[in-house]
Amino acid sequence: MAAKIVAALVCMVVMLRLSEAAVYKVGESAGWTTIANVDYKLWASTKTFHIGDTVLFEYNPQFHNVMRVTHSMYRSCNSSKPISTFTTGNDSITLTNHGHHFFFCGVPGHCLAGQKLDLNVIHPASSTPLSDPPISSSSTSPPSTPTIPAAGVPGSSPSHAASLPSAAAAVVALFVSLVFADFAS
Ligand SMILES: *[C@@H]1O[C@H](CO)[C@@H](O)[C@H](O)[C@H]1NC(C)=O
Ligand SMILES: *[C@@H]1O[C@H](CO)[C@@H](O)[C@H](O)[C@H]1NC(C)=O
Ligand SMILES: [Cu+2]
Protein backbone atom coordinates (compact mmCIF):
# COMPACT_ATOMS: atom_id res chain seq x y z
CA MET A 1 0.00 0.00 0.00
CA ALA A 2 2.58 2.54 1.12
CA ALA A 3 4.97 1.46 -1.61
CA LYS A 4 2.30 1.94 -4.24
CA ILE A 5 1.49 5.42 -3.02
CA VAL A 6 5.16 6.35 -3.07
CA ALA A 7 5.49 4.97 -6.58
CA ALA A 8 2.44 6.93 -7.69
CA LEU A 9 3.78 10.12 -6.13
CA VAL A 10 7.17 9.70 -7.77
CA CYS A 11 5.45 9.07 -11.07
CA MET A 12 3.33 12.19 -10.60
CA VAL A 13 6.33 14.39 -9.84
CA VAL A 14 8.29 13.07 -12.80
CA MET A 15 5.39 13.54 -15.19
CA LEU A 16 4.66 17.03 -13.96
CA ARG A 17 8.28 18.06 -14.40
CA LEU A 18 8.34 16.67 -17.91
CA SER A 19 5.07 18.32 -18.85
CA GLU A 20 6.01 21.66 -17.35
CA ALA A 21 9.48 22.22 -18.78
CA ALA A 22 9.20 25.48 -20.67
CA VAL A 23 11.66 27.82 -22.37
CA TYR A 24 11.31 31.53 -21.67
CA LYS A 25 13.14 34.04 -23.80
CA VAL A 26 14.19 36.90 -21.53
CA GLY A 27 12.66 40.16 -22.75
CA GLU A 28 10.71 38.40 -25.51
CA SER A 29 11.62 39.82 -28.95
CA ALA A 30 13.74 42.64 -27.49
CA GLY A 31 16.05 40.11 -25.86
CA TRP A 32 18.70 41.06 -23.29
CA THR A 33 19.55 44.70 -23.91
CA THR A 34 19.68 48.24 -22.58
CA ILE A 35 18.37 50.04 -25.65
CA ALA A 36 14.77 48.83 -25.63
CA ASN A 37 14.06 49.92 -22.05
CA VAL A 38 12.67 46.52 -21.19
CA ASP A 39 11.37 46.23 -17.66
CA TYR A 40 12.79 42.80 -16.82
CA LYS A 41 11.13 42.82 -13.43
CA LEU A 42 7.77 43.26 -15.11
CA TRP A 43 8.66 40.58 -17.65
CA ALA A 44 9.49 38.09 -14.87
CA SER A 45 6.27 38.93 -13.05
CA THR A 46 4.22 37.70 -16.01
CA LYS A 47 5.77 34.21 -15.78
CA THR A 48 5.56 31.32 -13.37
CA PHE A 49 8.95 29.63 -13.30
CA HIS A 50 9.31 25.98 -12.32
CA ILE A 51 12.29 23.75 -11.74
CA GLY A 52 13.37 22.36 -15.11
CA ASP A 53 12.34 25.44 -17.06
CA THR A 54 14.94 27.23 -19.14
CA VAL A 55 15.56 30.95 -19.53
CA LEU A 56 17.23 32.02 -22.75
CA PHE A 57 19.29 35.21 -22.86
CA GLU A 58 19.76 36.46 -26.40
CA TYR A 59 22.06 39.45 -26.99
CA ASN A 60 25.01 40.73 -28.97
CA PRO A 61 28.06 39.41 -27.07
CA GLN A 62 30.12 42.40 -28.19
CA PHE A 63 27.99 44.64 -25.99
CA HIS A 64 26.54 42.50 -23.20
CA ASN A 65 26.98 39.43 -21.07
CA VAL A 66 25.05 37.58 -18.36
CA MET A 67 26.22 37.19 -14.80
CA ARG A 68 24.47 35.16 -12.19
CA VAL A 69 25.01 36.88 -8.84
CA THR A 70 23.94 36.90 -5.21
CA HIS A 71 21.09 39.03 -3.93
CA SER A 72 23.40 41.62 -2.38
CA MET A 73 25.49 41.89 -5.55
CA TYR A 74 22.25 42.24 -7.51
CA ARG A 75 21.02 45.05 -5.27
CA SER A 76 24.28 47.00 -5.52
CA CYS A 77 25.09 46.04 -9.16
CA ASN A 78 28.43 44.78 -7.90
CA SER A 79 29.98 42.57 -10.60
CA SER A 80 33.29 41.81 -8.86
CA LYS A 81 32.49 38.19 -7.94
CA PRO A 82 29.74 36.65 -10.07
CA ILE A 83 28.60 33.11 -9.31
CA SER A 84 28.87 32.40 -13.03
CA THR A 85 29.28 34.36 -16.24
CA PHE A 86 27.83 33.64 -19.67
CA THR A 87 29.14 35.30 -22.82
CA THR A 88 27.90 33.49 -25.93
CA GLY A 89 24.99 35.79 -26.76
CA ASN A 90 22.64 32.81 -26.78
CA ASP A 91 22.77 31.46 -23.27
CA SER A 92 20.28 28.86 -22.10
CA ILE A 93 20.15 28.53 -18.34
CA THR A 94 18.11 25.70 -16.87
CA LEU A 95 16.58 26.43 -13.50
CA THR A 96 17.54 23.59 -11.18
CA ASN A 97 16.51 24.88 -7.77
CA HIS A 98 13.70 26.92 -6.33
CA GLY A 99 13.91 30.42 -4.94
CA HIS A 100 15.23 33.64 -6.40
CA HIS A 101 17.78 33.72 -9.20
CA PHE A 102 19.58 37.00 -9.76
CA PHE A 103 21.17 38.02 -13.05
CA PHE A 104 22.55 41.19 -14.54
CA CYS A 105 24.75 42.35 -17.38
CA GLY A 106 28.31 42.84 -16.12
CA VAL A 107 29.21 45.56 -18.61
CA PRO A 108 29.78 48.75 -16.58
CA GLY A 109 26.62 50.83 -16.25
CA HIS A 110 24.23 48.30 -17.75
CA CYS A 111 22.94 46.90 -14.47
CA LEU A 112 22.37 50.42 -13.18
CA ALA A 113 20.50 51.16 -16.42
CA GLY A 114 18.09 48.33 -15.61
CA GLN A 115 19.61 45.31 -17.37
CA LYS A 116 18.97 43.09 -14.40
CA LEU A 117 16.63 40.19 -13.77
CA ASP A 118 15.29 38.69 -10.56
CA LEU A 119 13.24 35.59 -11.18
CA ASN A 120 11.63 33.38 -8.60
CA VAL A 121 11.33 29.63 -9.14
CA ILE A 122 8.33 28.59 -7.10
CA HIS A 123 8.54 25.67 -4.73
CA PRO A 124 7.02 22.47 -6.14
CA ALA A 125 4.74 22.11 -3.11
CA SER A 126 3.08 25.44 -3.84
CA SER A 127 2.20 24.53 -7.41
CA THR A 128 0.22 21.31 -7.30
CA PRO A 129 -1.95 20.79 -10.38
CA LEU A 130 -5.11 20.70 -8.25
CA SER A 131 -4.66 24.22 -6.89
CA ASP A 132 -3.18 25.80 -10.01
CA PRO A 133 -5.74 27.75 -12.00
CA PRO A 134 -5.63 26.92 -15.69
CA ILE A 135 -3.07 29.03 -17.49
CA SER A 136 -4.93 31.73 -19.34
CA SER A 137 -4.53 32.51 -22.98
CA SER A 138 -2.28 35.27 -24.27
CA SER A 139 -5.30 37.50 -24.92
CA THR A 140 -5.44 38.60 -21.30
CA SER A 141 -3.38 41.62 -20.34
CA PRO A 142 -0.41 41.28 -17.97
CA PRO A 143 -1.18 41.88 -14.29
CA SER A 144 -1.13 45.51 -13.32
CA THR A 145 1.54 46.65 -10.92
CA PRO A 146 1.58 49.55 -8.45
CA THR A 147 4.67 51.01 -10.10
CA ILE A 148 4.59 52.65 -13.49
CA PRO A 149 6.07 50.21 -15.98
CA ALA A 150 8.66 51.72 -18.31
CA ALA A 151 7.63 49.60 -21.24
CA GLY A 152 5.02 46.97 -21.86
CA VAL A 153 6.28 43.47 -22.36
CA PRO A 154 4.08 41.36 -24.57
CA GLY A 155 2.85 38.42 -22.56
CA SER A 156 3.08 34.98 -24.01
CA SER A 157 1.83 31.71 -22.72
CA PRO A 158 4.37 28.99 -22.10
CA SER A 159 4.27 26.32 -24.76
CA HIS A 160 3.15 23.62 -22.32
CA ALA A 161 -0.02 25.45 -21.34
CA ALA A 162 -2.35 23.37 -23.46
CA SER A 163 -0.91 19.99 -22.50
CA LEU A 164 -0.71 20.57 -18.75
CA PRO A 165 -4.31 20.02 -17.63
CA SER A 166 -4.72 16.71 -19.47
CA ALA A 167 -1.37 15.38 -18.25
CA ALA A 168 -2.19 16.38 -14.70
CA ALA A 169 -5.62 14.78 -14.92
CA ALA A 170 -4.10 11.53 -16.17
CA VAL A 171 -1.64 11.44 -13.29
CA VAL A 172 -4.32 12.18 -10.70
CA ALA A 173 -6.52 9.45 -12.17
CA LEU A 174 -3.65 6.97 -11.98
CA PHE A 175 -2.95 7.95 -8.38
CA VAL A 176 -6.57 7.62 -7.34
CA SER A 177 -6.97 4.25 -9.04
CA LEU A 178 -3.88 2.86 -7.29
CA VAL A 179 -5.05 4.02 -3.88
CA PHE A 180 -8.59 2.75 -4.33
CA ALA A 181 -7.40 -0.60 -5.67
CA ASP A 182 -5.54 -1.06 -2.40
CA PHE A 183 -8.48 -0.08 -0.25
CA ALA A 184 -10.72 -2.54 -2.12
CA SER A 185 -8.35 -5.50 -1.77
C1 LIG B 1 31.78 44.34 -4.33
O1 LIG B 1 31.80 43.11 -3.63
C2 LIG B 1 33.10 42.74 -3.13
C3 LIG B 1 32.96 41.41 -2.45
O2 LIG B 1 32.22 40.53 -3.20
C4 LIG B 1 33.58 43.80 -2.17
O3 LIG B 1 34.88 43.48 -1.74
C5 LIG B 1 33.59 45.17 -2.83
O4 LIG B 1 33.93 46.14 -1.88
C6 LIG B 1 32.23 45.48 -3.43
N1 LIG B 1 32.28 46.74 -4.16
C7 LIG B 1 31.42 47.71 -3.95
C8 LIG B 1 31.62 48.93 -4.81
O5 LIG B 1 30.54 47.64 -3.11
C1 LIG C 1 19.96 29.88 -29.50
O1 LIG C 1 19.95 28.61 -28.89
C2 LIG C 1 18.74 27.91 -29.07
C3 LIG C 1 18.85 26.62 -28.32
O2 LIG C 1 19.35 26.83 -27.04
C4 LIG C 1 18.50 27.66 -30.55
O3 LIG C 1 17.25 27.04 -30.71
C5 LIG C 1 18.50 28.99 -31.29
O4 LIG C 1 18.39 28.75 -32.68
C6 LIG C 1 19.77 29.75 -31.01
N1 LIG C 1 19.68 31.08 -31.62
C7 LIG C 1 20.71 31.63 -32.24
C8 LIG C 1 20.48 33.00 -32.80
O5 LIG C 1 21.80 31.06 -32.36
CU1 LIG D 1 24.74 44.91 -21.15
TrEMBL record:
UniProt KW keywords: Copper, Glycoprotein, GPI-anchor, Lipoprotein, Membrane, Metal-binding, Signal
Pfam assignment, any one: Cu_bind_like
InterPro entries for this protein: Cupredoxin (IPR008972), Phytocyanin-like (IPR039391), Phytocyanin_dom (IPR003245)
Residue ranges of every copy of the Phytocyanin domain listed in the record: 22-123
A single MF term (Gene Ontology): metal ion binding
Signal peptide location: 1-21
Biased composition (Low complexity): 128-142
Keyword Cytoplasm appears in the UniProt entry: no
Superkingdom to which the source organism belongs: Eukaryota
A single GO cellular-component term on record: plasma membrane
Stretches for region Disordered: 128-156
Annotated PANTHER family: BLUE COPPER PROTEIN (PTHR33021), OS07G0570600 PROTEIN (PTHR33021:SF339)
Descriptive protein name: Phytocyanin domain-containing protein
